[in-house]
Each structure stands twice: as C-alpha cells, then as structure tokens.
Sequence to fold (370 residues):
Amino acid sequence: MAAPTIARERVQDPTQLRGIDVDVHPRITDWGAVAPFVPAGLRHRFTRRGGPPMARNGFKVVGDPFGGVPRPADDKVHPAGDPTWVKAEYLDKRGVDVAILTSDLTSLGVQPNADVAGAIATGVNDWLLETWVRPFDCFKGSILVAPQDPAQAVAEIDRLANDPGMVQVLMGSAAETPLGRRQYHPIYEACARHNLPLALHLGGEGAGMSPPSTAVGHPSTYFEWYGAIPQNYMAHIVSMVTEGVFEKYPTLKVVLCEGGIFWLPHIMWRFDKNWKAQRSETPWVKEPPSAYILRHFYSTTYPLEAPPDPTYLHQTLDMIEAERTLLFSSNYPYWLFGDPFAMVADIPEETKHRVMVENAVALYGDRLLR
Fold:
C-alpha cells in the first residue's frame, strides 16, 4: 500500500528554532495498526501477539530504561506510544521544535527472512507517515530499509524519497558484513541520488544473522555489550572509506546515532597513519581517511561521554569539528544514561546552537523545515 505524497507549507523559521532532535524512537504498541500497510500475503505475520518475528540478542537493560523521561499516569502506557503525548510532554516542554523519528527495530538488517524484513520496513514507514508525520508538523520520518536485500531497499527508498515527511534513510548498524561491501552500494547510490542522508543506529549487534558484537565474541552482560558497541561503528567507518564508498558517492552523508564521540580521534589518527604506509592496496582512497570521515560522517549527542574534566570534551569537539558534525539527539524515551540536555551542558556556548539547531538544518536542508 503506497502512502500518498502531500505538499506542506514551510512551518518553521530556522533562525527562531530552539532545538532539533535527530533521534526520537516512536513505539509501535499495536502491530495490528501496521498490518494494513504490508503485502496481504505477509499480513498474518503482523497480527500475531507481539508482532512479527524479530531477530534479538540476549542483552537486556538492567534497571529502568526510561530514566527521567516524562511518563503517562498509567505506567502500562509506553511513553513513546502516542505522538500527541510526546509532542506535549517532551517536545513542547523541553523546547524541541522538530524531531526526526528513528526506530526501535535496530536488528531489522539481521532478520533471517528478507521478505519479512522488507515487509516490516514498508509497513512501519507507511504507519509512521500516517500516525506521526502527517498529523504533526513537528515530526519528520526516516525511510527504514532492510539492507539484506539491497534491491528491495532501493525500491523502498525510491518509493518514499519524494515524500516531504521523510528526511533520511535509516538502517540498523547490525549487519552480516561491514557496510562498505559492494552489495550495499546500490543503497548508497539511492541515498545520494535523492540527496538523503543515511542514518545508522546501534542496537541489534549480536542478534540474528549478525556476527558477535565484539571482535572476540559475545559479551556476558548488557553493561559489557553497550560499553563495547562503538567498535561496530569503527569497523563500518573503516570499511566504507577503504571500499571507496565516498569516492563513488561524494555527496553521501552518514549519521551515527548513539555512538558517542571520544573514540573518533583515535580511529582517524590510526587510520591516517596506516594509509600512509599501505595506500597502494586501495589506490581509490585518494585522501587521508580522516578527510573522508570529517566530510561525510556526523555524530549525535546521546549518550555523550562524561570526561572528568570539561577541557577533554572541548578538545575532542575541536578534533571532530563538532561545530559542523555534531547533532543534538535525545534517544527519547530511553534515558537510562541520563538527561540528554544535561549531556550538552558543557559544550561551549559558541558551538551549542550549532549542535542544537544549525548543523541539522545544514545537513537535512529544506526537507526539515517544510
């Protein structure tokens, strides 16, 4: 079922914006509401209790995953299940003018059944447009795709790329192989052709067809799993640069959701040093790898690491050119690691508004404001 495309008037003056949140997780509380948007032959998989089968790992949050997030009076109601609630109790009260919706379905790319994964992506995308994006100017959507079937993913991007409610393409960072591999290149070509950033989101590593979430095997606890998970972004960055993704698609931009930032200088320095000695193996990598990283990758603020001295934060912000590349995110409603606004409190004032608003406007452009 194809979602209709509608035109919108510009509703925001970018000079007056207070905050743009690039990572808000809408919750599907009734998969029966998604079922009408999927192919009839697979619809029965969505009406079963708990929704369609999903690849999962064994790591569960210890404690309250929502932290200090606002809660409905009925504690059985999910705090991200109702867009009206999220707008009134989070966006309006915390000064967020626009929220980009991502997904809880971070293991979609390692779901063994590619047809079911593609149907989930299609159904969720149309449900998101009808339930969250079209009724509310403050919400913008992401085109969720399942990368294990690149042709199907490209068709989904082409189907929705011109919808004014969609501002990026979204994949989970959990994948069968490093994301620079050439089977994924058609997805990147579609993103570049439609001038859509690609967002990756951590969370499904170690599930389904994914390799273990660390290079030495499966962790034992959620604490270990989450602490080590930026390794996956390191691997994907190295893969995408060395496989020539950004030489083939020089306009492609990639947003790394929920990965932190303090590991980025290390990977840039090590990568540059090795490139000087081994560049003959990948002659298409024409610049130091750090140049590609700084030009093509963006990071988000949740959960920003908490160094013992704010000076370390300021130094790291300089090294990753945060005045261009850092985007505010809340990971709403999952505030296990603290309040997202407190995390940006030590960012210098001359950089903060760029992080809160201007960098997102520069990245997403007019799509974000209409």
Residues 1-11 have pLDDT under 50 and may be disordered. DSSP finds 13 helices and eight strands in the chain. The chain has one domain: 20-369. The CA atoms of residues 115 and 149 lie 8 Å apart.
